[in-house]
Amino acid sequence: MSQSQLFERQEEYYDIPTSTLTPIQIREKLAALAASVIGENNKASFADVLTLKSSPNGGVAVTDDLKYTGES
User: Helix axis angle, 40-49 relative to 23-38, nearest 10°?
Assistant: First the structure.
């Protein structure tokens, strides 16, 4: 997904427009947006990255990269 496409549609993901959606619905919406750029055949692998890990507070596949990058 190009950054420009996400930024062009970022208002769809603001608090109020997503206030009635579940986190799963938001992830599905992001996967659909990504598919418009990366193709339907790659949508499942993108959605897999957004799938919650099995631990109660494990986040998704990119969580550790976001939490633990950089030096302390």
Answer: 140
